[in-house]
Amino acid sequence: MTAPSSENPRHNAAAATHCEPCQSLDTLKPREARYIECVLGDNPELKRRLYALGFVPGAKITTLRVAPLGDPMQVRVGGSSVSIRRREASAIQLQPAQTG
Fold this sequence. Notes:
Elements: H1 13-17, E1 23-24, E2 33-39, H2 44-52, E3 60-66, E4 73-77, E5 80-84, H3 86-89, E6 92-94
Antiparallel strand pairs: 1-6, 2-3, 2-6, 3-4, 4-5
């Protein structure tokens, strides 16, 4: 999978560290689904890893389960089930829930 296009100003290098306020993945409850808005942070290695796993803007993500102490959490993204740390999940910003 490829990283988000730099043509979209909300997802260019500057915007990726200053994304509009969104709900982060670590706050999503089990069985809730949203679409990824952007990935925050200044760690390029982590961003590359998350993009390679399918955590890209526009991808649908569903929380499957959360460990008893809250870490790690298992999510479904792009047809794959992935376990990630809560710290990593906090960098993944989600689009607001659609109402109606």
